[in-house]
Design a protein that fits this description.
Helices cover 27% and strands 26% of the residues. Strands 8-7-9-14-15 form a five-stranded antiparallel beta sheet. Strands 1, 2, 4 and 5 form a four-stranded antiparallel beta sheet that branches. It is α+β, with helices and mostly antiparallel strands. A hairpin with a 6-residue loop joins strand 7 and strand 8. The protein binds 2-amino-4-trifluoromethylsulfanyl-butyric acid and cobalt (II) ion. The site of 2-amino-4-trifluoromethylsulfanyl-butyric acid has 12 residues, from strand 4.
C-alpha cells in the first residue's frame, strides 16, 4: 500500500474538480424528480461537468458507459443510467467524479423523491450521518479502520447493515488510490493516515442484509434481499488538526 501525500500546490489543484462535484450534486438535487429516467439524470451530470470545463471521470472508466452511477432503491452502487423511470417514493443515489487540473473529485448523495417511506427516509439520514460519524475526530495520525468502526457502530445501532463489498479510497491523479477505506473495522487498527493525504469516505448502508450481487451488466450491484440501500460520499484532505472537506 502506498498512500500518496499531496503538496499544497497539488491540494490547490484538487479544489476545482471537487467544487465541480459539489456544485453538480446540488444542481442535480434541485432537478431530480419523479417521471425522469436515470438516463436523463445522467445527461444533467454530463452537461454540467462539461460546461464546468471538466471531464466526467466515470465515463469510459474500465468501460463504464455513463458519467454518473445512478442507483435506485435496491441498487446499492454502480447503477448504469438507463430507461428506468424514477418514481415518487424512490431513493436515488447519484455518484459522480469530475477530472480537472490533472486531478479527480468524487462525491455522492442519495435523494428522496417526493414522499418516501419512514424506513427509507431514516436510511438516507443515517447513511449521511455515518459519513460524519466516520470522520469524527479524524486527523493526521488516526488509524485508518477507526473510520469504518465508527460508521459500522452508527449504522448497526440504527438497525441497518454496512455493505462490505465496496469501500472508500484515496484519490488524486487517479480516481482510486490507496488506501482502501472500508465502512467496517476494528478501532485502533490500520495504517495511520498521513497529513495531506486525500481520501473519499463513502458509506453504503442497507436497510436489510449487507449481501449484494452484481447483475449481468457487470456493474449494477443490488441487495440480495431486495431491500433498499443508500450511499453518501465526500472527498477530503486529512490535516494535522482535522479534515478539510472539498465537496461540501
Ligand atoms: N464514483 C465511484 C466511487 O466512488 C466510482 C464509480 S466507478 C465508475 O469510487 F466506473 F463508475 F467510474
Ligand atoms: Co468514491
Amino acid at each position: 500500500m502506498d498512500i500518496i501525500v499531496k503538496t499544497e500546490e497539488e491540494l490547490a489543484l484538487m479544489r476545482e474538480p471537487n467544487a465541480i462535484v459539489r456544485d453538480c450534486l446540488k444542481f442535480v438535487g434541485e432537478r431530480i424528480a419523479a417521471g425522469m429516467t436515470t438516463k436523463e439524470v445522467d445527461a444533467l451530470v454530463y452537461d454540467f461537468i462539461k460546461a464546468s470545463g471538466a471531464e466526467p471521470s466515470c465515463l469510459g472508466y474500465c468501460g463504464y458507459p455513463a458519467s454518473a452511477c445512478i442507483s435506485v432503491n435496491e441498487v446499492v452502487v454502480h447503477g448504469i443510467p438507463d430507461d428506468r423511470v424514477i418514481r415518487e417514493g424512490d431513493i436515488v443515489s447519484v455518484d459522480l467524479c469530475a477530472y480537472k487540473n490533472g486531478f479527480h473529485g468524487d462525491g455522492c448523495r442519495t435523494f428522496c423523491i417526493g414522499q418516501v417511506s419512514d424506513e427509507r427516509r431514516k436510511l438516507v439520514r443515517v447513511t449521511e450521518e455515518c459519513f460524519f460519524k466516520g470522520i469524527e475526530g479524524l486527523k493526521a495520525g488516526t488509524p485508518l479502520y477507526d473510520i469504518g468502526y465508527r460508521v459500522q457502530q452508527h449504522a448497526e445501532s440504527n438497525g441497518f447493515s454496512v455493505i462490505r463489498a465496496y469501500t472508500g479510497h484515496g484519490i488524486g491523479r487517479d480516481m482510486h488510490e490507496d488506501p482502501s477505506v472500508p465502512n467496517f473495522g476494528r478501532k485502533g487498527t490500520g495504517v495511520r493516515l498521513p497529513e495531506n493525504c486525500v481520501i473519499c469516505v463513502e458509506p453504503m448502508i442497507a436497510a436489510g442484509k449487507w449481501k449484494v450481487r452484481i447483475l449481468d451488466d457487470g456493474w449494477t450491484a443490488i441487495t440480495c434481499d431486495g431491500k433498499s440501500a443508500a450511499h453518501y460520499e465526500n472527498t477530503f484532505i486529512v490535516r494535522k488538526d482535522g479534515v478539510e472537506i472539498l465537496t461540501l
